[in-house]
Amino acid sequence: MPERSVDLIAVGGGTAGLVTAAGGAGLGARVALVERDRLGGECLWNGCVPSKALIAASRAAHAARTAGRLGVHAGDVRVDLDEVLAHVRQVQARIAPHDSPERFRGLGVHVVQGAARFLDAHTVQVGDERLRARHVVIATGTRPAVPPIPGLADVPYHTNETIFSITPLPRTLLVLGGGPIGVELAQAFARLGSAVTVVEAAPAFFPREDHEIAALLRQQLEGEGVAVLLDHRATAVRMEGGDLVLTVASGSTTREVRGDALLVATGRTPNLEGLGLDAIGVRTDAGGVITDARLRTSVPGVYAAGDIVSGGLKFTHVADHMARSVLRNALFPGSAPVRYDAVPWVTYTDPELAHVGLTEAEARDRYGSGIGVWRRELAGVDRVVADAGPAGLVKIISDPAGRVVGGHILAAHAGDMIGELTMAVTLKLRVGQIASVIHPYPTTAEAIRHAAEQQRKAGFTGWKRALAGWLVRRM
User: Fold this and answer.
1) Which domains does the chain carry?
2) What does pLDDT average to over the chain?
């Protein structure tokens, strides 16, 4: 059996594995990259890329339907789902070469297709080939978690792995799960023409987000016709007369909701099967591979990165960050922990919901009543008025010393705006420093400065105001 010795093996060809492989090769390491399916992982084939392409199509349909409020009359809007999905595939095809085996082989990476199995902490078998390395990175990612709902296995349903090939357009779509994936796709399909109902077991809408901003987003969705059922648990599903019938319970009340398609978006489960981790002593739990803050597993020389890490934040940009940290910790002297206190994330609804750091509630729990909450509603921002944009809000959270510890934005381009507040949290800037930054006019991002200026205005009282008045009058 052939054996190849390298410095680093990345098991998994999603974001974490790709960044590990490319980065390692760029640093001069001999690298092997193992993927059982297609390079690119969940993000390219079933997640970020196809969902954003679908969302772009749905946004165009919504803009055409609502253009009359701006004096532009587009007439009847016709959505051709086959053409929409062709657009999705075209987007994937344009991005795929960046993640292709050919590109990585060109970087000097030994790319192996097949399922990996650990023989020991430094040896991985893939088919008839054995790979041996000083360091191995587990980056096998996750897949959709399918809940054990009675009847679900007997009815047709979709997950994010199949929804981007659905046809025809559902007349009525049931979405089981009110997290980012479920809500993004719920709004997209509603704008494409489906009647959509979201069923969420939690009593709160987006409980990890700032409650005020999450409530505004829910109002937007419901205003577009998306029904949101919170505190409703699915108890059974069946087919009846060509319809899917989902039985849901809330407290002691039971009801049925009907649709002709069902999307299950109830979370993720780690891809651990077949790796042989138990045999070599790598500790795992229901969330994935257990690591320390430096992404080291319980076995020396074996690391984990990306969505497979138990307790980690499951975002593409976090997987990228983890992979870079693994390279630092595995290949160079010393080590550095991964920190998650300044990780931004975005839910790509319209408007987008962007988040970094602590929410208002989290800040109060940590710092008490001395925190600062600085707000700017977008309804009064000139650019939003000119664009006839949706309701939104910028919210900056500061600790008792005035340092930015959280930022939350609901706006049309919140994902592009959150970087400013992410930098503020990362660098421990004070709110007043943001207020001093010149922002171009007219932009939605001006709302960040407006919110920060509230802190200055709040402090301009008492002796400060009296002194300013005296200085003005003496002139």
Assistant:
1) 3-39+100-144+269-331 (3.50.50.60), 152-266 (3.50.50.60), 345-462 (3.30.390.30)
2) 95
